[in-house]
Amino acid sequence: MFTDPIADYLTRIRNGIMANHKVVEIPASNLKKEITKILYDKGYILSYKFEDKGYQGNIKIALKYHPVSKVPAIKKIQKISKPGLRKYADNRNLPRVLNGLGIAIISTSKGVMSDKDARANKVGGEVLCYVY
Hints:
Layout (H helix, E strand, L loop, with lengths): L4 H14 L4 E5 L2 H12 L3 E7 L6 E6 L13 E3 L8 E2 L13 E6 L2 E4 H7 L3 E7 L1
Antiparallel strand pairs: 1-3, 2-3, 4-8, 5-8, 6-7, 6-8
């Protein structure tokens, strides 16, 4: 049992990038699946696959690298809201990561979405992580 499963998810991706792995396997949950879909839609990962084996299942994430220089698409992935100190933002104070070049993943009342989508829907929520 993990204290912070989202931090474990982000750390597994970060470690996979640092070790130049092509695929990372992570225990699944509904929140992790939504974050994975956002990372794929925004172009930070190459592909993903949800495997429903047993009780929990797994997420297989294919990490994305530049074809020639082998530079990863994710430069930094950083957890913001922690179990001991939650970070919330309303729709007027949503963070802008690298002046709009990166994304912040927000858990809102309308589901998990990027900061740009949250601004468009005029909702705030818990700031989970920054990706750039």
